[in-house]
Amino acid sequence: MISFDKNQLFIVTGASSGLGEATAIMLNSFGATVIAIARNANRLQIMKKKCRYPDNMHLEIKDLADDINDLPAYIKKLKEKYGKFSGLAYCAGITDVTPLKGLQLETIQKVLNIDYLAPIFLTKGVCDKRNNIGNKTSIVVVSSLSGIIPSKGMLSYCGAKAAIINSMKVIAKEYSALGIRINTVSPSDIATPMTQTGDVKSFVESRIMNYPFGIGEPNDVANMITFLLSDKAKFISGQNYVIDSGGVL
Amino acid sequence: MNKKDFLVDLEDILQREEPCNASDVLDDYEEWDSLSKMALMAFFDKSFGIKLSLKDFKDLKTVEDIIKLAGEKIQ
Predict the structure, then answer these.
(1) What are the structural domains of chain A?
(2) Does the domain formed by B3-73 have CATH 1.10.1200.10?
(3) Complex ipTM value
(4) What is the pLDDT of residues A44-90, one digit of tens each?
(5) Where does residue A55 rank: exposed (0-12), middle (13-18), buried (19+ CB within 10 A)?
């Protein structure tokens, strides 16, 4: 059975909705202290109300795309406020449907900022040995099945998600000597606000038949993230886990 | 850049808990590994326009020796 101690501090980004919310609530329910980061203060407060141990859920309002180069310093400030971190669950994400013929640099940059650059610079902060507990630190970044199986119209998202899988493997190699474990998860479409609005919704509906069990739930992914962050996964690093009910087989 | 600022930057590059001093012996730093050297190469390139290679690190004994690599860029 997975359990955490309240002295174990985990940062969860994108914590106000979808996978981040599910992960923050799950880690907290298993006893960990969570630093929940998101842009929207109201939605973070709503998330906190659903928590089992609200005293161990700390909220931080932040737009990760604001100053990506400054994210390692931001982690340092959080360390000074809360203590050394046991890990990070990077669950913030944005998607975009724009085919090549409609592509603007600004569009792809926005996706790269949140889906590729911000997780790397946050990881840089957490991997700094002054900010983590050392051996047993674990980092999980949410990629996507789109990082493995490309879809028409999603070149920004598919590119960023493919890139983060491989870059995190590089970081896993660089930090294995310090005992830091780094993995990514690649879910297929999950029922979250990101996939249930606008153009993306109809896009997702058009490919549901690819997944034997239909659309996934946030907890299907949060379970895997929680496992990878826990000591039960102490022999696992540098991997990417597809969570798609067997669709890509 | 003055020497004092460089020592603070070096502490950050090496991710050391303790401050760096010019007289410190590099082999006494557990952080002094090949990845730290590559990070320092990137720093020299960006900050001073000096391109170092791993060979340049071979004979370094102390932090002062790193400072010498920057020539007049570190006063």
Answers:
(1) 9-241 (3.40.50.720)
(2) yes
(3) 0.85
(4) 999 999 999 999 999 999 999 999 999 999 999 999 999 999 999 99
(5) exposed
